[in-house]
Specification:
With 183 residues, the protein is an alpha+beta fold. The protein contains 6 helices and 8 strands, in the order ββαααβββαβαββα. The chain is globular and about 40 Å long. The structure holds coenzyme A. Coenzyme A binds at residues 32, 35-36, 93-96, 102-108, 131, 135-138, 140-141, 144.
Length: 183
């Protein structure tokens, strides 16, 4: 069991009993709206994606629960996936599903833990992320960690009845951790 410890949060496997809570976050338009949509449409697809994620680098399933160390509750999830069949990098994503837990640095700490975990365990030189150009919390989180905005994908994401532009962000291993070359 992989657990990544931080000072205020830890990343740990998602317990089976937590799946309905996470699925409810997916379905709540207030939690992810107005900036995004999740890629699974049905309960069955959600369950299947969690069951098969370990063997599927491209899986969009959440990979870790974000647990707030005190009081030890589930506050969010993070995921990562290989978005391209040839290019070698991972994209990550993140949700703090408990509204009261937002704005306290937990999202940023969780993503930093994930970045360092991935650079420590995967032979990629680049970790990327994308976010709706209107999602200030998301891009400020990324920029606070050192991700660079590399461009804008125009009209790349359809949600809430219209097309949205999307920022592309990237962080290289040398920018994050210059002492860890590829093995
Ligand atoms: C994006 C998200 C994970 C941020 O998590 P969080 O724990 O609230 O963020 P943090 O407290 O770590 O703050 C990170 C940065 O965002 C800023 N921020 C937080 N909430 C904000 C808001 N509502 N509007 C603008 N900026 C905000 C913080 O000030 C901080 O920036 P700073 O370091 O420049 O001050 C959370 O808002 C969320 O779950 N949103 C819905 C899902 C989502 O959009 N996920 C990303 C998809 S790309």
């Amino acid at each position: 069991m992989v657990v990544v410890e931080g000072s205020n949060v830890r990343l740990r496997p998602i317990a089976p009993a937590e799946r309905p809570t996470i699925r409810a976050w997916y379905l709540d338009p207030e939690l992810v709206a107005p900036f995004d949509r999740f890629a699974v449409e049905t309960d069955e697809e959600f369950e299947r994606s969690l069951d098969t994620a370990d063997g599927d680098p491209a899986s969009l399933a959440p990979r870790f629960a974000i647990e707030r160390r005190a009081p030890g509750d589930l506050v969010g999830v993070v995921g990562y996936y290989a978005p391209h069949p040839v290019l070698e990098f991972l994209d990550l994503w993140y949700v703090i599903g408990v509204p009261a837990a937002r704005g306290h640095g937990l999202g940023r700490e969780a993503v930093e833990l994930l970045v360092d975990h991935l650079f420590g365990t995967e032979s990629v030189e680049r970790i990327g992320a994308t976010c709706d150009v209107e999602n200030a919390a998301s891009y400020r989180l990324l920029e606070g960690i050192g991700f660079r905005r590399e461009g804008t994908l125009r009209s790349a994401l359809f949600h809430h009845s219209r097309w949205h532009d999307v920022y592309v962000y990237g962080l290289t291993r040398s920018e994050r951790a210059p002492t860890r070359p590829r093995a």
